[in-house]
Design brief:
By secondary structure, this protein is mostly beta strands. The protein is built from one helix and ten strands, in the order E-E-E-H-E-E-E-E-E-E-E. The longest helix has 6 residues, at 33-38. The chain is globular and about 40 Å long. 32% of the residues are buried. The structure holds zinc ion (2 copies).
Length: 142
Amino acid sequence: MGTAMVITGECFCGEVTFEVSGDVFDGRSCHCSRCRKAFSGAGSAYALVHPGTFKWTKGEALLTSYVNQETAGLQFCKVCGSTLCGVFNGEVHGVSLGCLNDDPEVTLARHIFVGSKASWDMIGGDTPQFEEYPTPDEFEDE
Ligand SMILES: [Zn+2]
Ligand SMILES: [Zn+2]
C-alpha cells in the first residue's frame, strides 16, 4: 500500500479531471445487467477509494449524477458521458478504473454477478468468479 501515492484520472473528453491522494483498493468487475449499461461494457471495472482522498481537479460543474438507490449512485461527464465514479451518501466511494491515467497498482480481484453476465462475455484468467455478490467468507484476500 503506497501512502504517498497520487493517482489522476479523467473522462473521455478530458473536461473533467480528478485525483486520488491515496491508494485505490478492492478492485472488482460486476457483470450484472445494470453495471453493463452503467459502464457501457462487459461490466464495471471499479475500485474503492479511502474517505477524503478523492478530489475533482477540473470540470466539477460538468458532472451529472444518476442516483439509483436512495443513497448510492454514479457520476458522469455531461459532455462525453464517461462514468467517472460511484457516490455513496454524497461522498465519492470508488472510481471507474478505465478513467485512471496512472497505474493504480490494483487489479480486478473478483468477477461478481457472473451468473447474469452477457452471453458474449468470455471472462478469461484465474481471477475468482462469483455467481452473485460474494459472502464475506468467500473473499480470498483482505
Ligand atoms: Zn468528458
Ligand atoms: Zn452490477
